[in-house]
Fold:
Amino acid sequence: MTKADLIEAVARTTRQPKAKVAITIDSAFDLIARAIRKDKRFWVPGFGTFSVRRHRARPGFNPRTRTPMTIPAIRTIGFRPAPELKKGI
Structure:
């Protein structure tokens, strides 16, 4: 499902104009992103948890030249589904 599909489905379900639904969904995603940046975590009961994950620096190599290098540490966002969500899969 794409964002456009989500907007269309919500608009159809709620009988609201697509433009209004798009603003609402964009606002929701923005608030989720802010919460993750601020609290390092966003939890939706029955759905799952978005959280910041840290990956340490590690040794690696340049695949093109095969020279050794250090892959820098990074932070990414991970998702862990709730048990209720996993049941339906």
Q: What stands out?
A: The longest strand covers residues 48-55. Helices lie at 3-14, 18-39, 83-87.
